[in-house]
Amino acid sequence: MDYKFVPSVCPYCGTGCGVLFEVIDGKLVGTLPNKTHPVNEGKLCIKGWNMHEFVNSFMRLKQPLVKTFGRFMKTEWDEAIKITADRFKEIIKKHGPDSIGVLVSAKITNEENYLAQKFARAVIGTNNVDHCARL
Amino acid sequence: MQAQVEQWLKEGNVDIFIGYKNVDGHVIPHFFTNENIDEVKDLVVGQAHYSLEKIATKVAADHPDMKIGILLARNCNQQALHVLYVWNQLNSNQIQTIEAYEASSDPAFDLGQSEDTAPYKQKMGLVKSMVPKDVEAFDQQQRFSRWMYEFSKCIKCYGCRNICPVCFCKECSLEHKDLVRAGNLPPEIPVFHLVRAVHMAGRCIDCGLCEEACPADIPLRLLYRKVDEIVVDVFDYETGTSPDQSPFSVLGEKVVLELTPIDE
Question: pTM here?
C-alpha cells in the first residue's frame, strides 16, 4: 500500500496549470488541481481533470515508430534517432539546410524550446523556426 | 497534533493518516503511515483545503478494513464525513479524526481563499458570501436572466462534481448520454446545473469547494445554499448534522409529502 500525491504541471496547453497526481501503488489513478498554484489557483478544465486517463490509455505510444515500406514499425529510441539524423543529413546535402523547418510548441518548457531553436540554428543551420501557436 | 498522529500510528489506532504536508512550497494532501513515520513532523494545516474525506472514501473502497485518520481543518470536513456515514460511503468505526481548525477561519463564509470577491463582481452585486435571501431582493425576471448568464459561462469541466466531497455516485447523471448531450458547450442550461443542484439536496454541506474549483466562477455555492434551505424548510433535515438518513434515500410508499409551490 503506497498512496501519494505528486505535484506536476499539466502538459495539455501552454497555460501550465498546476496539478496533483494521485498515485496508488505506483499507478496513476486521479488528478486534482493544485489549490496554491499561482497559474490556475485550484481550477482546471476538463482535459486537465482527466489527465490520468491518457497516461494509462492503452492507445498511448510508448516507443517510437518508424515508417518502413508504408508501415509503422516499433523501434528503439537510439535506432529512431539514428534513422532521423541520417535522413536529415541526406536532405540537407541534397536540398540545403533551409529545406528543413523546426516547429516548437507551447506545450513544452522554455528550456526545451530554447534547445529546439538551438538545434535548428546551430546543428541544421536554418532560421526556419516557428511556433505551434502561429500554425 | 503531530504527537497525537505519531502515537496513533505507533499504537495501530490508525493504519494511515490523511493530512497535509508542505511540498516545494505547496501545502498538499499527504498520507502518513508507519513506514514514513518520520514525516509526521512535517504534518501541517494549510490555507488551501482539499477534500480529504473524498480521498478517504477512495482508500476505504480499496481497503475496507483499514483504519483511517483524517485531519479536520474546517467545520465542513466533519459535516462531509457525517454525510458520507449517512450515505454508507464510509464506516464511522473506521475513521479517526483530529480537529485542527484554523483560528482565523469563519466556517460559515470561509472559501479557503484569502482573496475577496473581485471588484467587478462586487459591482455587479455578486459577493461570495451571498445567501439566498440577498438574491430574493431582485425580481424573478432579473434573477432568471442572471442565472442563465452565469450558467452560460459553464465550460463543462465537471470540476464541481469531481472536487465535491459528497459526490460519490458510480454513474453520474451529468454524464448520462440521454440526459446531457455530448459535444455541446455550454451544456444544456439551466438543466445541467439544476440536475446537479437537485442531487445536492440532502448532501451539500456548503463547503464551497465547487465554487472554488469552477473556472467560470459560477456562484454554485449560492445555488446549493438555496437547495439546502428548501431541504431544511420542507423536510426539517439539517444536512451534515442530522443523524438520520437523508429524506431523499426514502423510496416508494413511504413518501407522504404534499406538493406545494416553491414560490408563495
Answer: 0.79
